[in-house]
Structure formats: structure tokens, C-alpha cells
């Protein structure tokens, strides 16, 4: 299984860096700052920065709040490629 974060472009995210990149692109597309996004979901700007850089051990409820604020959707679907190779690349 892999988790996907979908926006208009159907971005696929399989690790924290990719999740952060999707969040950053969506935030910038909406024209809001990290501080504004943080205020919408009740977290600090520095936390948004860490998440966007793939460096945060963010709680799932925090990620879901950010995704909701950005009008993104979280889905879990079967992987489209070799499971073991993908897992090894993520660690």
C-alpha cells in the first residue's frame, strides 16, 4: 500500500520529502505563507517549514489538518511498482 496526496495534478507522494513538496506547491498555488497556513491549522510556521522540507515527524492529524486547509485529499491505495524496491529507496 502507498499513500497518495491528490490535488489537481494528481501528485503521488511516497515519502516525507515528496509529501512536503506537494504541500509546498499547493500552499504557494493558493498564495498563502507558511505562517498563514500554520495559523489556519493551529501550528507554528516553523512546523510548516519542517513538514514542507520533509524533516518533521508530524502527527497524522496535523498532516490531515494541513491537507484539509489546502483542499487536498489523502488516499491509501496499492502500490503501482515493486513494493520492496520502493521501501528500500525510502529509507
TrEMBL record:
It comes from the Bacteria. GO terms for molecular function: DNA binding. SUPFAM superfamilies: lambda repressor-like DNA-binding domains (SSF47413). InterPro entries: Cro/C1-type_HTH, Lambda_DNA-bd_dom_sf. Residues 23-77 form the HTH cro/C1-type domain. This is HTH-type transcriptional regulator / antitoxin HipB. The lineage of its organism: Bacteria, Pseudomonadati, Verrucomicrobiota, Terrimicrobiia, Terrimicrobiales.
